Amino acid sequence: MSKLIIVSNRLPVSMERRKGKVNFQQSAGGLATGISSFYKTYESIWIGWPGIDSDKIEKNKEEIRKRLISEFNCHPVFLPRRDFDNYYSGFCNNTIWPLFHYFPQHTAYKENFWKSYKRINELFCKDVLTIAKEEDIIWIHDYQLMLLPKLLREKLPNATIGFFLHIPFPSFELFRILPWRNEILEGLIGSDLIGFHTYDYALNFLKSSQRILGYEPDMGQLHSHGRIVKVDTFPMGIEFERYYESREDPKVQKEIEKLKKEVGNYQVILSVDRLDYTKGIIERLEGFNTFLEKNTEYKEKVVCILIAVPSRSQVPQYKKLKSRVDELISKINGKHGTVGWTPIHYLYKFLPFSSMAALYNIADISLVTPLRDGMNLIAKEYIATKTDGNGVLILSEMTGAAKELGEALIVNPNNNKEMADTIKKALEMPGLARIEKTRIMQKRIERYNVVKWADDFIGKLKSTKTMQKETYTRALKTEAIEKLKINYTKSSRRLFFLDYDGTLTQFFERPEHAKPNDDLLGLLKSLSSNKKNEVVLVSGREKETLNKWFGHLDLNMISEHGVWMRKKQKSWKMLEPLKNDWKDEIREILESHVDRTPGSFIEEKEFSLVFHYRKVDPEIGSVRVSELRDNLLGLTTNKNLQVLEGHKVIDIKNSEINKGHAALKWLSKDNWGFILSVGDDVTDEDMFSVMPENAYSIKVGLHSTCAKYNIKSPDEVVSLLKKLVE
User: Fold this and answer.
1) Does the predicted TM-score (pTM) go above 0.90?
2) Which of 340, 327, 339 has its CA nearest to residue 289?
3) Range with the lowest mean pLDDT among 375-384, 397-406, 467-476, 560-569?
4) In this structure, are residues 108 and 95 in contact, taking their beta carbons and an 8 Å threshold?
5) From 701's CA, which of 255, 364, 426, 524 has a CA 20 to 30 Å away?
6) CA distance to 126, 144, 222, 658, per residue, from 148 (Å)
7) Helices (H) and strands (E) in the chain, counts
8) Are 6 and 139 in contact (CB under 8 A)?
């Protein structure tokens, strides 16, 4: 029976050593608290670091492992100190964290950080492999483990692997700065499903994969090494009921009463964050300062409770940030405070659930204004606690939560004036408006809670795996290959239709660079020299190139998708009488697009024109191709022309021409005992469609097709032909 394996940097429980004894406690952090309630509903195990230096517990490792498994269903990964600092404080929090949050000025690019990151991911892989089987579901979390999906895929090729990124994925222009960008992308693409909080993050990932690795996105999917990889959005939720019902908790009630006595009758603005430069705490304080300067009537009527949870306190940038926060709070309190009133109440500490829930309950306004944030669950937690609906959320547009909580007052955290004006607007918002907005957001948060989020992810992961299996059923597997070989061996008359570019060879940036090597020429010579075989090379290339490359071989050739035909060692003949008087008008349109599209060019054949854009920037290319397609469709309708889109090309030719018509010339001339047809793009579908029932038609790639089988790559096509020759 399969199980769910959750893998994250930290376990949902932490351990610490006190007076020689090992103690366990609930881990802090959105991921640990968010999923801990969910994963217990599955037959599952959680793999992660227990939060203690492995060197300090060398003698107790086995005992600790047994306790974690038996008491918490957790498997610990013990990480060596020599790599952990460079991995966690180094690559994770000095390289990935700042860059992915749009702070390149804080980003460090150190080779020793990267090497440690790789080694720790390999250690995680080793531990997962001691537990995981191919039928299990493996769900990997966050930026600390971005290499793990590929590492596991190499060991468990058929495993079900999902990955969720809990921080933003940056734009291509930022991500490309990373020296190890290729390895990170390939690591993630080892997954079957890659999840993000928002569509923007997913789009950034797809664009980076396209522009750096050349993967063409197809409706939120990538095709990698014969696998479909799904990329989708899943905005993480919270334990709604826990926060909504928190006011009924005696501990929370006690905290509420205590806070009310301490705060008095002031209106309360609450700010809760880890002390991190991405959270916009300085900008928030400056906005509050401007609010007090512009609205003196609110002095001694409002207080801001600012909770800053200690975070990465040994990192120099965080030390500087704490000093700046301390100084700014002192300055604001000194400037605006009175003997009986302190504008900002500041706590630099972690607060337990009861204290946080109490603060949410009493706060009139929650100020959640990070400069960049993957989701931000604090915003959702605050809204969930407002059982009376009487609360206002001020939310940064730079958070993932802003995509869901549109009823909040949305601000640009860098706009000081807007921040100050929005605080005033929130304080003066009528009660009915507050309640109406809060109720709408509550319903949404309740409906899409953390369990729904996790269920949706796992459901999508399973459906992606099902889709892969359906594609796999069309794959040319060993059994089908053996049947094909037997059929080939027994047949006395065999017919081959072979496309060239993308089928017998990979694509090149320039068509002329796709010249066949000696190995391929030798294979075609062996295949065509067998008297039982009739080999037809069916290509979109012009006849001069085919003559130059293959003219010395004893095979048949079709050029320009079916315009010209040359039987073995004979002269070229036109299959259909055609005109090319349309080319001047169409060429003019293509030339205008080439002039505006760096990297594109026109290939002219006798009866067709081809617009190539393989070297074009993908984003520009997609825009130009869309424009060109629209322009051409309007012109070609009454000219008996056809516009075909291939792999980074647009081909304009006479509509009577297609590979299917050309193939029929051979299909009808003999009683073939074995027929093999192989191609890779839309122009080959015409050829597949005319194949008889007993033919083996094979499409290179995973795209939909009317061929019977799919095969991964030109290398596999060549390998198949070699098996037949042998």
Assistant:
1) no
2) 327
3) 467-476
4) yes
5) 524
6) 10, 9, 18, 46
7) 26, 28
8) yes
